Amino acid sequence: MGEATDYRKLRSDFVQVLRERRDPEVPLRVELANPVEIPLYQDDNPPNAQVNLDPSLKADSENSEHVLKEENLHLIIEEGEQGRLPLLIFSSKEDTHERKPAVVCLHSTGNCKEYLRPLLKAYASRGYIAISLDSRYHNERASSKNTYQDALVSAWKTGETMPFIYDTVWDLIKLADYLTQREDIDPSRIGITGLSLGGMHAWFAAFADTRYAVVAPLIGVQGFGWALDNDKWHARVDSIRPMFEAACDDLGKRAFDKEVVQKVWDRIAPGLASKFDSPYSIPAIAPRPLLILNGAEDPRTPLEGLEVPISNAQRAYKESHCPDNFKMIAEPGIGHLATPYMIKEASVWFDRFLKA
């Protein structure tokens, strides 16, 4: 069996896992929604009200209200309270009757789609359809500051949902169904990016769905299995601590250890630290252009844990005869932070491959 065939099988296996804990699907439909006046931030230390952009991008979006169109929509994808997918979309008011490239931008843990409004405007002002959404159990899909963490604890205890990465990746597959139906979007030119948790969503959505043609995850790609084997899981665990505390109690442990972390990943995101981990899912994105952006000092995405995924990806892109379609940037001196430099580099990557 050839390597490309193996990746197709791996992708099929992953999508099958995503399907296993779903509420029943419903016919895809779109409903108009009202703008969110006061977004819900679940982080104890919420970021500034809007993402910080490089000046070269910010200038492109100044005075954009006169030239850009904003859409607030709900995409109905399945039964249940989480089956309503909130979308925020920006595009140019100028009707050129030409299909445009699109970029999907995804927020970090505890954040919301409105946080990315300046980034969406920046992309829209440069000719893209720019889309963001609320991840599962966030903002419009949350009832309190604890909704996401509560969903994680429930997932550990019941095994009924997969709120860490996987459920939102399913949403992104359904989003691709919608975007490829829009008359203003070129279905062959859809890019995806995200910050932190959003970077993981972008990574796994691109792995799962080849309709995401260009990919640029920020501070999200890591080696989950490597972290377990090398005692480097602590920073990631601390970011969603209540779930692991519940697991410790249920397993009769006094403190987190490798066994607890392994059992949690296997329960809430099967295969995350094994068959679907970055050494296998990252090269499966080839030959589509992939830019990975991390901080060189990020404890959640240690560079040592990416040596094998990067090596595997370089080989996959070389075998696909497009080695320049893969690039890794580790910004020196930066921890777990999506910097204006990273956001700008992602935009350059999209311009290179979606506007050619």
Automatic annotation (TrEMBL):
Gene3D superfamilies: alpha/beta hydrolase. Residues 103-337 form the AB hydrolase-1 domain. It comes from the Eukaryota. This is AB hydrolase-1 domain-containing protein. It comes from Acacia crassicarpa (northern wattle).
